[in-house]
Amino acid sequence: MNPTTPWIRLLRHGAVRGGAIVLAALALLGLLAPWLGTIDPAAMDASFINVAAGASGAVTLPDGAQVQHTFWMGSDSVGRDIWSRVLYGTRISLMVGGFTAALAVALGCTLGMLAGYFRAADAVLMRVMDGLMAIPAVLLAITLVAMLGATLPTVILAIAVPEVPRVTRLVRALVIGLRDEPFVEAARALATPDATILWRDILPNALAPLIVQGTFIAASAVLTEAILSFLGLGLPSDVPTWGNIMAEGRVLFSQAPGNVLWPALFLVPTVLAINLLGDGLRDVLDPKFSRRA
């Protein structure tokens, strides 16, 4: 295999390896949460309110059963296990990041190709995108959540919508640069339908920047979801998310700082790992970088 192929460069790139390893470890923790010394993250026991890390005892579950449990990260103000809530919150954060990136890229790619290829649609679509970009992303997300309700699908949609204009502008610029290329002109000369030209000839040439943009959107989505939950405007408090855990722990931060610090210690490396992965992908997939290498 040619050592200059993108796959080999990806494997050799330190940022890509580091980000992928951290994300894989976090995803594994989320998947294996039921078998890693956790209990129901919604289980409350008044006997274990704000206990220190390492405390143990018989915890009463919602179904009335009692289990012997160790609070590896302590408990919150209503007796819920922080370790369990942090691990199950990993699932929510990674799902929000992945699905938000996929939705924003799918919508933005479709609109960007239409705006870049069809001049008649360009003026209308881009003015709508400019209007959306004029609204702060967090404010727009808060408005959409308030209108649609705080559920996981609506939170994903609310975070994805502010990212769509950025993807649209990126794809539009790429399509404008490609629509007059000889291979596109040849396809038109053969009476190839416009839809086929867009999806078969133009889209593959825009995939590399889209993949990189998608990683940055995923990192931003994880952080935005935590901000919304921290402000009490995201998912309900009974849903274990890192933002919810920090929001509930801030009131008693002086007595139990771990309730804020533990989820933050998961949030920071997650966002950092996704950004590292995006930086590495940009370096490897950027043609200018390839020529320098």
From TrEMBL:
GO CC terms of this entry: plasma membrane
Entry-linked InterPro entries: BP-dependent_transpt_permease, MetI-like, MetI-like_sf
Keywords, alphabetical: Cell membrane, Membrane, Transmembrane, Transmembrane helix, Transport
Residue intervals of the ABC transmembrane type-1 domain: 90-278
Ranges that cross the membrane: 20-39, 94-118, 138-161, 210-233, 260-278
Lipid bilayer topology: Multi-pass membrane protein
Domain of life of the native organism: Bacteria
Subcellular compartments: Cell membrane
Biological processes, Gene Ontology terms: transmembrane transport
Transmembrane found in the keyword field: yes
Family that this chain belongs to: Belongs to the binding-protein-dependent transport system permease family.
Protein name: Peptide/nickel transport system permease protein
